[in-house]
Design brief:
The protein is an alpha+beta fold and about 425 residues long. It contains six helices and 23 strands. A hairpin with a 7-residue loop joins strand 14 and strand 15.
């Protein structure tokens, strides 16, 4: 009996051992793919950061990708925006008077021919009176000229009388034409009722830049009353030094940013290269048309520009996309494929006393991987970037807000964060 019990005990032990072996083997084979992937990332030294939707929105993070930029085959140049003289106008009148009304304010857009002010002067009425008198005299002298011409042809009167009549007629015709041009210049209808007020009209379409008059001001002939600029033909003048001049030619592309504003890139194309030095700077003015964003610019803005003289393009990112840590450089890449995570406290290993702020509804979460890179040449807010760790094609890269994510990573490593 004892021998039988021993046999049964040994058999039971063998069965239990077999069951445990296959159970543990199955568990090892079913390690979640996500955990395997995480272990692979940890082996490669890739760190991850998790942000909730409120953090992502509040930090104003922007996502993008690599841009192909020419950062080496270029000429650096500084310059400013400039307006050609035919797109600027000083408004003046041709006679003296008093300002009766002003219809515009500085910064207002006006169209060519629009009334922008009125001037009052008795001289206007006198010119109109002289015009009407000359018109009447001209009609009489024309009839007299035709009559004397007929009589002279029939040899009824002397040639002297005919010549005198012809002279008077030509003189009055010239006077009438002169008065007619004066009224036209003053924007007065020659055939209308006599008036002492004239309208001052805009000579070009554009924006009012200055108003040098006020109601009741005395107006002098030829003195500017208002200024108008038309920024639609704005271009840039770049100062290129003598050593680079032979590399610059019309048709080359230009990229520039405004010195005192954001890093928004504006594009242009060279249409003319100056033929003389600018003052004592030993630089030549290179003129370039602006292809985009003309309405956001005004004359006199200072710019930093790159003139493309080659076609060597490299993968580049905005400077804000790069973070430095431990003497190395990194970017952050959005990890695709994450579902909206379960509630914050249900995650494995997370406790209420870990130091993280708890919210009732955190919503969608965003996972970012920190990828090591090597940087190169930087120009106009962009820098050449070479990946030292592989990422998927089309991955979304953090182009703005990378330092916020880096600070969040440092906080997590200090304690109370999520380990990935």
């Amino acid at each position: 009996m004892k021998k039988s019990n021993i046999i049964y005990a040994v058999g039971a032990a063998v069965v239990i051992a077999i069951i445990l072996y296959f159970t543990l083997r199955k568990t090892d084979a079913e390690v979640p793919k996500e955990e395997a992937k995480t272990e692979e990332k940890q082996a490669a030294g890739i760190k991850e950061v998790e942000l909730n939707e409120a953090q992502f929105t509040g930090s104003q993070i922007e996502l993008g990708g690599f841009s192909q930029k020419n950062l080496s085959d270029v000429i650096n140049a500084n310059g400013y925006t400039k307006l050609p003289p035919q797109n600027q106008a000083d408004v003046s009148v041709f006679t003296t008077g008093i300002v009766k009304s002003i219809s515009v304010i500085e910064g207002q857009h006006v169209n060519k021919g629009q009334v922008i002010a009125t001037i009052e002067s008795p001289e206007f009425a006198k010119i109109q009176e002289a015009y009407l008198t000359s018109k009447s005299n001209l009609e009489y002298l024309k009839l007299e000229f035709e009559r004397q011409k007929t009589l002279s042809a029939e040899e009824v009167n002397s040639k002297k009388v005919f010549q005198q009549t012809k002279s008077n007629y030509e003189i009055e015709k010239a006077r009438f034409s002169s008065l007619q041009r004066q009224l036209s210049t003053l924007n007065i209808n020659p055939n209308g009722a006599a008036t002492s007020t004239v309208a001052v009209k805009a000579p070009i379409s554009g924006f009012i830049t200055e108003i040098n008059i006020k109601l009741g001001s005395n107006v002098e002939a030829g003195k500017p009353l208002l200024g108008i600029v038309d920024n639609s033909k704005l271009h840039v003048d770049l100062l290129v030094y003598e050593k680079d001049l032979r590399k610059v030619k019309p048709g080359q592309d230009v990229r520039f940013i405004l010195t005192n504003q954001d890093n928004t890139e504006i594009k242009g194309k060279i249409f003319s290269v100056g033929k003389s030095f600018e003052n004592e700077t030993k630089s030549v003015a290179v003129h370039a048309d602006i292809i985009n964003d003309k309405q956001q610019l005004i004359p006199g803005m200072y710019i930093n520009a790159l003139i493309d003289i080659g076609i060597k393009s490299v993968s580049a990112l905005p400077l804000e996309a790069i973070v430095k840590a431990d003497g190395r450089e990194f970017i952050f890449v959005l990890e695709e494929g994450h579902k909206e995570e379960e509630s914050h406290d249900d995650k494995q290993g997370h406790a209420h006393d870990d130091g993280d702020k708890h919210e009732e509804n955190e919503g969608k979460t965003y996972h970012f991987q920190r990828i090591e890179v090597k940087t190169g040449t930087s120009q106009l807010g962009f820098i050449q970037v070479t990946l030292l760790q592989k990422i998927d094609a089309g991955s979304k890269i953090v182009t703005k807000g990378a330092y916020y994510i880096q600070s969040h990573l440092l906080k997590s490593e200090g304690g109370g964060g999520h380990d990935h």
